[in-house]
């Protein structure tokens, strides 16, 4: 299986690089991943549940990063065993190119699968791989928005002291008055 694509990211090249090298971010963004642990220089043990068509399995494996050129990209190799469901192994190249909107992430993946998963047929495998990639990028975009999105334009106005019902500033244990009024539904 071979796959390639690009995604526009609304964050800087450096922020994308940092996130793509953070095991916790990767664990959150890979659906079914319950383990993404460093084991040495640029090597990680990974555990994740994968479902391809009617075949579900818990895969254990490792990811090794190489040819790093911070913050522009790297290559990685992966391999995993899913018991009787089969195995997966392959490599990927990731590039980050800055642009006016943030940066563009480019990727290529070359992978092989074996066992029961391989018996499902190439179209089903390719569809599952594309779905996993789309899900990763959706989760990655959401995580980056949570971590790096600028505050809403009206956040400063809400933080200012605003009179609550009756003309007095409402507070609760040091909460910002604008927020407190909004939480009470009286803004």
Describe this structure as you would to a colleague.
It comes from Variovorax dokdonensis. It holds the Pfam family COXG. This is Carbon monoxide dehydrogenase subunit G. Helices cover about 30% and strands about 40% of the residues. The protein is an alpha+beta fold and about 190 residues long. It folds into two domains: about 150 residues, Alpha-D-Glucose-1,6-Bisphosphate, Chain A, domain 4 (2-Layer Sandwich), CATH 3.30.530.20; about 35 residues, no CATH class. Strands 1-7-6-5-4-3-2 form a seven-stranded antiparallel β-sheet, with helices on one face. Strand 6 and strand 7 form a beta hairpin. The chain is globular.
Compute the number of structural domains. Answer: 2
Tally the beta strands.
Answer: 7
CATH architecture of the largest domain: 2-Layer Sandwich
Proportion of residues in helical segments = 25-40%
Identify the quaternary structure here.
single chain
- pLDDT < 50 stretches: 161-187
Q: What is the third-level CATH name, the topology of the largest domain?
A: Alpha-D-Glucose-1,6-Bisphosphate, Chain A, domain 4
Distance between the termini: 55 Å
């Amino acid at each position: 299986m071979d796959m390639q694509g690009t995604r526009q990211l609304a964050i800087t090249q450096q922020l994308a690089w940092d996130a793509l090298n953070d095991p916790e971010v990767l664990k959150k963004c890979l659906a079914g991943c319950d383990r993404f642990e460093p084991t040495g220089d640029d090597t990680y043990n990974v555990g994740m549940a994968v479902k391809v068509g009617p075949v579900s399995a818990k895969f254990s494996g490792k990811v090794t990063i190489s040819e790093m050129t911070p913050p522009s990209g790297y290559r990685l190799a992966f391999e995993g065993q899913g018991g009787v469901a089969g195995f997966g192994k392959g490599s990927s190249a990731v590039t980050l190119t800055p642009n006016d909107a943030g940066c563009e992430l480019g990727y290529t993946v070359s992978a092989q699968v074996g066992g029961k998963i391989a018996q499902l047929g190439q179209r089903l495998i390719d569809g599952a791989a594309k779905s996993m990639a789309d899900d990763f990028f959706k989760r990655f975009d959401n995580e980056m928005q949570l971590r790096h999105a600028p505050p809403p334009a009206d956040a400063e106005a809400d933080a200012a002291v605003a009179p609550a019902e009756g003309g007095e500033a409402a507070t609760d244990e040091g909460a910002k008055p604008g927020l407190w009024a909004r939480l009470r539904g009286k803004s």
